[in-house]
Write a structure and sequence with these properties.
InterPro entries: ARM-like (IPR011989), ARM-type_fold (IPR016024). The protein is mainly α. It has two domains: 139 residues, Leucine-rich Repeat Variant, CATH 1.25.10; 103 residues. It is built from 14 helices and no strands. The longest helix is centred in the first third of the chain and has 22 residues.
């Protein structure tokens, strides 16, 4: 359950966080280590301030301060090995608990290219956290568009080769949580649309069908929901109902 707690972060603190995050990681090994520690401290402050808290005004101040722009720049430009989990979590905590206005503000920053780049990160946890943010964007779309409408974020993701990257992540990533989330995420992108790649829906739907009785509540709930939406398309439904499969209630 989220808390409704408002934190009035002083402008001087926002400025210091922004300045610390802007420091390029250069120098000797020890100098780089100190810069990373300083940036981890800055991002930990954001995480602790907003984790699971419904402080929409505070989150708007973070977005408007320029801190989010710097985080997105880091996602897109920094060497992947230097992108720590705290960097992505500082971004992710702003998107949850869900709020239409905050999601729209983050979406308008066009973070997808940088977030999709994290799919190449060697740390599966960082990769998964990137997926979770994109999933929060999808939640907004699920709540505001009808089953047969075109998803407004689809072209943006596709332009970044996002569909291809998510499918690649599903096919080659050995981490179950990441693989399951990638399958659900991909299915949600297409929702009631027919998937043009003939092999792709078979792979995705078959995997989603194995998740409806998963021990993880989030996984089985969202796999069933995703299958229900995919089934609104006739061809997808035929694949789903093969082997006399029925989506559980």
């Amino acid at each position: 359950m989220s808390e409704i707690i408002k934190a009035q972060i002083p402008i001087s603190v926002l400025k210091k966080i922004r300045e610390d995050l802007m420091i390029p990681i250069l120098g000797t090994h020890e100098e780089k280590k100190k810069i990373i520690e300083k940036q981890n401290y800055a991002t930990q402050f954001i995480i602790k301030t907003f984790y699971n808290k419904k402080d929409d005004e505070g989150k708007k101040r973070i977005i408007q301060s320029g801190i989010v722009d710097i985080l997105i720049f880091i996602f897109g430009r920094r060497e992947l090995s230097q992108i720590t989990r705290n960097i992505i979590l500082a971004f992710q905590v702003l998107s949850y608990p869900y709020n239409d206005e905050i999601i729209l503000l983050l979406y308008q920053k066009n973070p997808f290219s940088g977030l999709l780049r994290l799919y190449e990160h060697r740390d599966n946890v960082v990769t998964f956290d990137g997926l979770l943010f994109i999933l929060n964007i999808i939640v907004d779309d699920f709540n505001t568009t009808s089953d047969n409408s075109h998803r407004p974020y689809y072209d943006t993701i596709n332009a970044c080769r996002g569909i291809e990257k998510i499918m690649k992540l599903f096919r080659i990533n050995g981490n179950k949580k990441t693989k399951d989330t990638a399958a659900i995420r991909h299915g949600q992108i297409f929702r009631a649309k027919e998937i043009n790649d003939k092999q792709m829906p078979i792979e995705l739907i078959r995997h989603l069908k194995t998740l409806v009785n998963d021990t993880d509540e989030w996984t089985y709930t969202n796999s069933k929901l995703t299958l229900c939406h995919l089934a609104l398309n006739t061809l997808n439904r035929a694949e789903i109902e093969s082997d006399v499969f029925a989506i559980p209630e």
